[in-house]
Amino acid sequence: MTGIEWIVEAHGCDPQSLAEMPRLQQLFADMVREIGLRPVGEAQWHQFPASPQSQQPGGITGLCLLAESHLAVHTFPEHGSLCLNLFCCKPRPQWDFGKYIKKHFAAQTVNVRQLERDYATASGLKVFAKAGGR
Amino acid sequence: MTGIEWIVEAHGCDPQSLAEMPRLQQLFADMVREIGLRPVGEAQWHQFPASPQSQQPGGITGLCLLAESHLAVHTFPEHGSLCLNLFCCKPRPQWDFGKYIKKHFAAQTVNVRQLERDYATASGLKVFAKAGGR
Questions:
Q1: Which of B9, B119, B127 sits opposite A124 (nearest CB)?
Q2: Of A65, A76, A127, which has the smallest distance from its Cβ to B119's Cβ?
């Protein structure tokens, strides 16, 4: 049996949006609803303090334990970037990460990689698709 | 700036060991100490119920929010497998995932992939190394 991990990097985002906790929490809520994920317990959130060298607010990390595996997000307002992981050990419909992140975080580019996570047969080694344009 | 994500799959593990919460918690504790990670808050753990079709106990998921990004583990006793992610947004020393997982979970094979997670310059697309043998 093969799981899939979506590994997403978004760049050129609006830095303020990357520091807004409710906006990040809404991302998780929308993914859970639209992809049909099943959280196991509450998501964990942390906002880091702003770097003294940076004019930008501190980034946010969120983790959510799913019946399907996990969901993780990290934002870097100082770089205008966001990193997202979704690991599903069972098949799930494709979700348009690029469209969502461009709309809600004003990303200029969104890269989506899909990795096989083969947890049953020890053959899950390749990165089999790069989806989503810059 | 480029982060690294280590993506690990171990197969042929001892199923009982994959269902022992203290053993999984020790994995995180050892990684934190040996790699020099800095957890932000307590790790979150969940043990799934055993599948009625399986003779094996239920798998365990653990997530830990780090100052460096995150650490995630999922075990599948019914498949004798374990999946681990460590995302570090700053350079960290290499850690011998294979040696540890073979020793503590009796894995027969451990595959380690390293992915660049480029959160600053939008160029982090390649899987640049496959380390650890089967």
A1: B9
A2: A76
**pLDDT per residue of chain A (134 residues) written in tens, 0 to 9:** 789 999 999 999 999 999 999 999 999 999 999 999 999 989 999 999 987 777 788 999 999 999 989 999 999 999 999 999 999 988 788 899 999 999 999 999 999 999 999 888 754 433 333 333 33
Q: How far apart are CA B53 and CA A130, in angstroms?
A: 36
Within an 8 Å CB–CB cutoff, is residue B128 touching chain A?
no
Burial (CB count <10 Å: 0-12, 13-18, 19+), residue B89: buried
Stated as kind and residue range, the H or E segment containing B2 is: strand B2-11
Whether this prediction's pTM lies above 0.90 is answered by no
Interface contact flag, A63 B67, Cβ < 8 Å:
no
Do B122 and A111 meet the contact criterion of CB atoms below 8 Å apart?
yes
Quote ipTM for the complex.
0.85
Q: Where does residue A81 fall: left (phi above 0), alpha (psi -120 to 50 degrees), or beta otherwise? A: beta
Could you tell me the two tokens for B107?
């894995």
Those residues with Cβ within 8 angstroms of residue B50's Cβ, 6 or more apart along the chain or in another chain: B56, B57, B58
What CA–CA distance (Å, rounded) separates B45 from A29?
21
